[in-house]
Amino acid sequence: MDVYTGLMEAMNSEYELVRRLREGERGSVSVVLHARSGRRYILRLFPGCGDGCRRLLSLSCPHLPLIYEVCEHGGSTAVLEEYVQGDTLSYILECGPLPAREARDIALQLCRALWALHSVGAVHRDIKPGNVIMRGDEAVLVDFDALRVYKCGQDGDTRALGTVGYAAPEQYGICQSDPRSDIYSLGVLLNVMLTGRHPSQAPAGGSLGRVVQRCTMTNPRKRYRDVLRLMEALS
């Protein structure tokens, strides 16, 4: 019995489906309940390789969900991960933009999440309000459906993924996405937190506006080189 089949059989006997969060051609995301412990988890099933998620098994960062198991079989991958309880940033922003200090603090926390991902060669590629959960005052970056591993020397991404308005230009075939692609998306998110709109529609002002401007340069080489430089600018 392979590990994928073993996990699925364990799911049938030890876990109960609580609700399906999303289902489509890119796979499914569900909340499941472990019968004996009463703990909730997120179960992701998607077609393709789980190499990117497997790299996250070694990570322990308060701003990322813990990954407990990654199993592959027949061209599909199953991922069991921490269930993060809280409100999405998109829900919070329905009440309007955030104070500059709060927006800066959330951006800094997301930089720490990205630094952890980038340290193992992973690029998130889908940073947006709906993929940030506020666990109290703690921002947690979730949803690794678009995550990929950076491959040195490759001209472009094998598949264009991301959310229009937040995805960097290179994610649409100009060149391969890399950590600077996440910096672009985080810059857009910072502007949305400050003004409620995309930087092309209502650019933020002041020092944080200048940070947004550099993050969202079309040419990746003109953005911050890495999230450490971005953190220095935000601080």
Q: What percentage of the residues does DSSP assign to strands (E)?
A: 15-25%
Rg, Å, rounded: 18 Å
Low-confidence stretches: none
The rounded distance between the terminal residues' Cα atoms is: 51 Å
What order do the SSEs take from the amino end to the carboxyl end, as H and E? HEEEHEEEHHEEEEHHH
Number of domains: 2
Per DSSP, the total helix count is: 7
Q: Overall 3D geometry?
A: globular
Averaged pLDDT, please? 87
Strand order of the largest sheet: 1-2-3-5-4
Reported CATH architecture of the largest domain: Orthogonal Bundle
Largest sheet: 5 strands, antiparallel
Helix content estimate = 25-40%
Secondary structural class:
alpha+beta
What would you give as the CATH superfamily of the largest domain?
A: Transferase(Phosphotransferase) domain 1
Classified by CATH, the class of the largest domain is: Mainly Alpha
What is the fold named in CATH at topology level of the largest domain? Answer: Transferase(Phosphotransferase), domain 1
* Record field, number of beta strands: 10
